[in-house]
Design a protein that fits this description.
single chain, AB_hydrolase_fold, about 10% strand, about 475 residues, Rossmann fold, alpha/beta, 8-stranded mixed sheet
Length: about 475
């Protein structure tokens, strides 16, 4: 069309042409991205990052490890919770190194899991965050900055999957919800995806019940130092273990009652729960694991949000004990009605409203899931209750996003020795390398090939342990 003819077009028609052109451009952009995401190219060009493969971004150490031949996929990893100071049960100095996968310790990608992923052509990247502790906001910021760094330094991925363990599972889900423009799939593992307040409320429930029934000296909130919190954990640990061993005096039943209140795991990586003795040991381990976050973890959180965010002022503990649990407790000489009455009369804890709001704002899931998301959780998790998955599923349903969420559960063998421990399925984030690699392959097959995951289908990649019949049940009752 000549310039003159174009000038004679009515203004309204020019507007229609302009809008149509803009729509076509938008459609082309979306199609271009989708074409890139679903690409089967296994030899995508990239720039080697050299000395820029490691460094610090906004105070957070990071690492990038590249395969010999890139399939175009970036796996952006977020690590799990690390105490801000040395804490229970090992009291080792917490790591401050970046991680590029679940079992990588120093950002080098020399562990067996990372090597498997690299051999399949994945590029790996991960951060250490700029702080330890409940560093959700730091973790989200670190992941976003690292993706930008990777794109500028190495190249634009055809697709990016975010994945992480424990607190990193929560971080990965938040990153996915907030960054639909570049996240193409998500794989949170053993994630605290019910968010901050629900999880710390349960830690308060554990501490409150132990204080009321087992150790009156236990401090519930307001620790003044990490040393005070650690000393408290050591003292209460000794008291709880002594109480659990007191079968004749009713101590064992009290400990099992506390476990029942919070659905504590009766199998752990060490104890298979095959008999009552093993169940008691597993319950003690689960409660002490939770108590670590109710002491040292709480100290860190209360410093961050300037007060106590947890609340049990309206909690009905008696309602948490089912008829089946009550019968079992009575079988071992327990008095569950009496324990519940004692809890009902004990002084409660009210949250500082500003602190509770501040804790929530550090980062929580919304259920606004826009990309294929596959979570994986051990059925017996002593730290991050498997019911975290129930909360995320409910939020996804409320957002109309249930079709973009698939949740896989890994069951442990029925029995295993204390010497060898559970190979998978019991314990926090206790998965095999095959299960982790299989999870990534499951997400990838959904994203690139539109193959909707089923437990049976996932089992082909993940191997033994996937339990398609398992349902985690509802979250333990708590205040809103």
């Amino acid at each position: 069309m000549s310039p003159r003819r174009r000038a004679l077009l009515p203004a309204a028609l020019l507007a229609v042409v302009t809008v149509a052109s803009a729509c076509a451009s938008s459609t082309t952009g979306v199609s271009a991205r989708q074409s890139r995401v679903s690409s089967g190219d296994t030899d995508v060009s990239f720039r080697t990052c050299g000395s820029s493969c490691t460094g610090t971004l906004d105070g957070a150490k990071y690492a990038i490890v590249l395969p010999a031949r890139w399939n175009g996929t970036l796996l952006l990893y977020s690590h799990g919770y690390r105490f801000a100071q040395a804490g229970p049960p090992s009291f080792e100095t917490p790591s401050t190194d970046a991680q590029v996968s679940s079992t990588d310790e120093d950002g080098t990608g020399q562990d067996a899991l990372s090597k498997q992923l690299l051999a399949k052509g994945y590029a790996l990247a991960g951060s250490a965050y700029k702080s330890n502790g409940w560093a959700v906001a730091d973790g989200v910021a670190a992941a976003e900055a690292l993706h930008d760094k990777f794109t500028k330094t190495v190249g634009t991925p055809n697709r990016t999957y975010v994945w992480g363990d424990s607190l990193g599972g929560l971080i990965s889900e938040i990153v996915a919800e907030r960054n639909a423009s570049w996240v193409d799939g998500a794989a949170p593992m053993c994630g605290a995806v019910a968010g901050p307040n629900l999880n710390l409320d349960v830690a308060l429930d554990v501490a409150f019940a132990i204080k009321t029934l087992v150790d009156p000296s236990l401090k519930l909130t307001g620790y003044t130092s990490a040393d005070e919190a650690n000393a408290q954990w050591r003292h209460t640990s000794a008291v709880l273990q002594k109480t659990a061993a007191d079968t004749a005096g009713g101590g064992t039943a009290k400990v099992l009652y506390v476990g029942a209140l919070v659905d504590a795991a009766t199998k752990t990586a060490t104890y298979d729960g095959a008999d009552i003795e093993s169940q008691v040991k597993a319950t003690v381990e689960s409660l002490l694991t939770a108590l670590a976050y109710g002491t040292l973890g709480r100290y860190d959180i209360e410093q961050r949000v300037k007060g106590n965010p947890s609340d049990n002022s309206s909690t009905d503990y008696a309602a948490r004990i089912s008829a089946r649990e009550k019968s079992l407790l009575e079988t071992v000489g327990g008095k569950p009605d009496q324990y519940s009455a004692t809890l009902a009369k004990a002084p409660r804890v009210s949250a500082d409203a500003a602190a509770r709001t501040a804790f929530e704002k550090l980062g929580d899931t919304t259920g606004k899931i826009t990309v294929p998301t596959v979570t994986m959780h051990t059925e017996a998790d002593p730290l991050v209750l498997v019911q975290n998955e129930s909360v995320l599923a409910q939020r996804a349903r409320q957002r109309g996003a249930a079709d973009r969420l698939v949740q896989l559960y890994v069951a442990p063998p029925k029995t295993y020795s204390e010497q060898t421990g559970a190979p998978y399925g019991a314990g926090h984030c206790n998965f095999t390398d095959q299960q982790r690699v299989g999870l990534i392959q499951t997400v990838d097959n959904w994203v690139r090939n539109d193959v909707y995951p089923t437990p049976a289908g996932a089992a082909a990649s993940l191997g033994t342990g996937v339990d398609g019949a398992f349902s985690p049940g509802p979250w333990p009752a708590s205040v809103s």
